[in-house]
Write a structure and sequence with these properties.
Length: 297
């Protein structure tokens, strides 16, 4: 799908797989939220993942919008309300899920905690919690809820956790190799890493193409397949133990994609496409987003 392109700044393939290889253009997309700038998504065939290029050195300005809902707790539009309703239900499901992997004293690190709702619920249920969130506005909102989040993992940090969760965060991390190493070191022996990411192999991704909201360039720097998650975590001793679907993501992503493609949201068409994506995934196992449960080999 296009000509081979080399991107010399990309290190992840050389570290985890082999020396840097040419990558082909998968598709062009644009920032539909803030800047309107165009970005290429290059396909790393060895890992079967996509790489957003160019990757801006300073990503801060691309998050400076009131419409970035995970940083704002927005609840104004109908789409916002749908998101918040799904989020409330999902928080309970997520906490139930990680509870299956906690032993004894329950310790949780939420890496990319947003405005702290998941941590707040976990704390309420007796977990010992810590959260990391680089966005200042989101940290401020979390503080209003009684949660003091770190902006990053400080040098010399020695705490370890039974469960580390990244809910739609891995795709945002600019220094992926270093971040994976940090996460591995923070995990207790026998601990569990829980990661949720979009899946560019899903039907809704294929249907909406460059307008698929979960590409979200350039905030999403990496776009993972199931093979890619296996490939990047295996070298640091973490094995995928289970993959779980995120059913509601297909509907919410379709709502946003409709707006990006047509300039307005067609709720009926979005619902149909989300439903169709889930029905196709029932057989293909390629849902709009997946939760990965990883533990040490």
């Amino acid at each position: 799908m296009g000509t081979a392109i080399r991107i010399p700044f990309l290190n992840i393939t050389s570290i985890f797989i082999q020396p840097i290889l040419p990558m082909k253009l998968y598709l062009k997309t644009k920032d539909h939220v803030v800047s309107g700038e165009t970005f290429d998504l290059l396909h790393d065939e060895a890992l079967d993942m996509l790489v957003t290029t160019p990757q801006p050195e300073d990503l801060t300005k691309y998050y400076e919008t009131g419409s970035y809902i995970s940083h704002t707790d927005a609840n104004k539009t109908l789409v916002d309300k749908v998101y918040q309703a799904i989020k409330r239900y999902s928080l309970i499901r997520k906490l139930s899920l990680i509870g299956n992997y906690a032993k004894g004293q329950r310790t949780l690190l939420d890496f990319g905690a947003g405005t702290g709702d998941f941590l707040g619920l976990a704390k309420q249920k007796g977990w010992q919690v810590e959260g990391v969130e680089p966005n200042g506005g989101a940290r401020k909102r979390a503080a209003e809820k009684g949660l003091d989040l770190l902006d990053e993992i400080p040098t010399g940090y020695t705490k370890k956790f039974q469960v580390i969760a990244l809910w739609h965060v891995l795709e945002h991390l600019p220094d992926l190799e270093n971040q994976l190493t940090i996460l591995s070191e923070l995990l207790e022996e026998g601990g569990t890493l829980v990661i949720a990411v979009p899946n560019f192999k899903s039907y809704d991704a294929q249907h909406y193409g460059s307008f698929w909201a979960a590409y979200d360039a350039p905030r999403h720097l990496w776009h993972f397949s199931q093979h890619a998650i296996q490939g990047i975590f295996s070298p640091i001793g973490l094995k995928v133990m289970a993959i779980k679907p995120m059913i509601f993501d297909a509907f919410y992503v379709s709502l946003l994609s409709e707006k990006y493609k047509y300039g307005k949201t067609n709720y009926i068409r979005a619902f149909f496409n989300g439903l169709l994506s889930n029905l196709k995934a029932w057989r293909s196992k390629q849902y709009s987003s997946h939760i990965y449960i990883l533990q040490r080999n």
